[in-house]
Design brief:
2,3-Dihydroxybiphenyl 1,2-Dioxygenase, domain 1; eight-stranded mixed β-sheet; 38% strand; 157 residues; 3 helices
């Protein structure tokens, strides 16, 4: 099963936890000092908020899968569609160890496609950076959008 993932940056975690808990009719599945996540069954969404972003708003969208086979199939689809992707492989972010890669839509919205492998006690554990990897506090790639030809991403002149 795939699960839609949304991550938003917020200014006030407590106010937003209260708001989304009331809206979803349940408390977060995970709460930390700078982060909260709801694993909703109806609708099936992995919805996370944190205070670690540059500014409030949607940070990235994603698809969470349950198996390595599902992730491989999605990656094969992205490759067949000739999307440039940033493969992080096994990494840590958002209190989890995951296998993930990123693509960026034509508007510049980052899409994370990932399988959560385990829970970890810290937001992230720094490892040696992947070649050409630029990431924010919550791992979404920043800078030139992936998946867009260089010519289309540059200025008109």
């Amino acid at each position: 099963m795939k699960r839609f993932h949304v991550h938003m940056h917020v200014d006030d975690l407590a106010k937003n936890i209260a708001f989304y808990s009331a809206m979803f009719g349940q408390e977060p599945a995970r709460t930390e000092g700078d982060y909260a996540k709801w694993m909703l069954q109806d609708p099936p969404v992995n919805f996370a908020i944190s205070t670690r972003g540059d500014k409030p708003g949607v940070d990235h969208l994603g698809i969470q899968v349950e198996s390595a086979d599902e992730l491989a199939a999605m990656k094969a689809n992205a490759t067949k569609a000739d999307m440039a992707l940033m493969d992080e492989g096994e990494t840590t972010c958002c209190y989890a160890r995951s296998d993930k890669y990123w693509v960026t839509d034509p508007q510049g919205v980052a899409w994370e496609q990932f399988q959560t492998l385990d829970s970890i006690p810290v937001f992230s554990q720094k490892a040696a950076p992947a070649p050409n990897a630029e990431a924010s506090a919550c791992c979404a790639p920043k800078g030139k959008p992936l998946g867009i030809p260089v010519k289309a991403a540059s200025s008109c002149c």
